[in-house]
Amino acid sequence: MQEIDKLIKESLNGEKRSTARLISMVERGNENAPYILKKIFPFSGKAYYIGVTGPPGAGKSTTVDRLIARFCKNNYSVGVIAVDPSSPFSGGALLGDRVRMHVQQEKMDVFIRSMSTDRVMGGLSRTTKEASRILDASGKQIIIIETAGVGQSELDVAEATDTVLVILTPESGDSIQIMKAGLMEIADIFVVNKADRPGAKDISLSIQGMLDRSLRKREWIPPIFMTSASTNVGIDALYEGVWNHSRYLKQGSHLEERRKAQLKLELRARIENEFSHILWQDIVAEKNVDKVVEEIWSRSIDPQNAARKMAMELIEEVVLKWGKNLCQ
Amino acid sequence: MARRIKVVIAKLGLDIHWRGVYLVAQFLKEAGMDVVYLGNKFPAEIVEAAIEEDADVVGLSSLCGNHLTLGPIVVEMLKKKGLNNVKVFMGGVMPPEDAKKLEKEYGITKVYLPDTPMQVIIDGITESMQGTA
């Protein structure tokens, strides 16, 4: 424990190596992870969190690279978590976001960490939030979370950040694609990247039209920025746009409300997680799941009813166990 | 289950040969490792990435003759930063005597020359990690 305490202390003082070690421990589900999170959490919550999401190849990493440069130029300390997908077969990953990121160490105070999704759908990994809190506690003022390339319904980033940038390109589809639910609904800011290509104006008009037709009551209307990240065009306006949204959130209690709503969702997910963990580890493991699979296979019961039956049996069993303990 | 090995892999300096490093990166991914590919980077940047990523292994690709100049600098800088546990592997084209020199005198864990079977590289990295937590 002494060793962990030392790492935590160093990390809180901004020591990079210790911060990196702590993130690894949490990422790998090390036995000390709960202790680390307990110690770190009180020091987090000071940073501003920016999420960057969009389909593969839209220019997320390049845009992040450009934003890092602007934040650093204005003397902010920046932490970046860049997520890329893991292999469903080997579990390994090729994490390629750093290729686009160019850091001048002498001039820039930045910490970049790559993470694999570790077989989690949703665009982030199981511990991305925790890792971002470690960076936050280590003194980073701006946290940028870049998701893995997403489709239409990987929306975890909206529950982990204050400002969500959805990055699209002129090739992102026609106005029907833009009207679809999911990704398009979580944007606080739209970015049409590669705007030097044909069709950029069309897609921005489609987004505008979609927003105009929306019945959702919005106090904040997501602005649309046209950029060409690789040639550094339109990034200054985008940078200002991010601050605009931040200023909006900080008026009244918007930011607090947003973060509390996120914490509620997180807590709920964690509770479900705990329960399903207990279920699978302690209870279902003892049952003969394979036997039930055989029953389903022979068509003597359907999966939904089989599951319900098993759940009922489990509850009965638990109640009996507890009842026994109460009586003793 | 053993934890996933984290590899930071880069084209050393200005070396633009990419096929070999892509091949290795992809195979390591398929062997279940987390591979952070940096593209072209100089030693200081590679070491910085190794720190931030908490890398177990650094892989350097060199096919343009910078193996003896930049390779040892990476090892040196890692040591200076206190990252003594990070294993440095190299791959590429160089005279076999240079490869031996890098392994014997400059602290490179292993140099893989052309025609090395991929499994040898995967096994080499996996074995170098044995005994570490």
Description of the molecule:
Chain A is 47% helix and 12% strand. Chain A is of the alpha/beta class and 328 residues long. Chain A has 3 domains: 1-43, no CATH class; 45-251, P-loop containing nucleotide triphosphate hydrolases (Rossmann fold, 3-Layer(aba) Sandwich), CATH 3.40.50.300; 265-327, no CATH class. A 7-stranded parallel sheet of chain A has the order 4-2-5-1-6-7-8, with helices on both faces. The mean pLDDT of chain A is 92. Chain B has one domain: Cobalamin-binding domain (Rossmann fold, 3-Layer(aba) Sandwich), CATH 3.40.50. Chain B is built from 5 helices and 5 strands. In chain B, helix 2 (43-53) packs across helix 3. Chain A binds chain B through residues 16-17, 20-21, 23-24, 28, 86-87, 89-96, 98-99, 103, 105, 111-114, 116, and chain B through 3-4, 6, 25-26, 28-39, 44-45, 48-49, 51-54, 81-83.
What is the topology, as strand order, of the major beta sheet of chain A? 4-2-5-1-6-7-8
Mean pLDDT of chain A: 92
N-to-C CA distance of chain B: 12 Å
Task: Quickly give the structural class of chain B.
Answer: alpha/beta
Q: What does the radius of gyration of chain A come to?
A: 23 Å
Distance separating the two termini of chain A: 37 Å
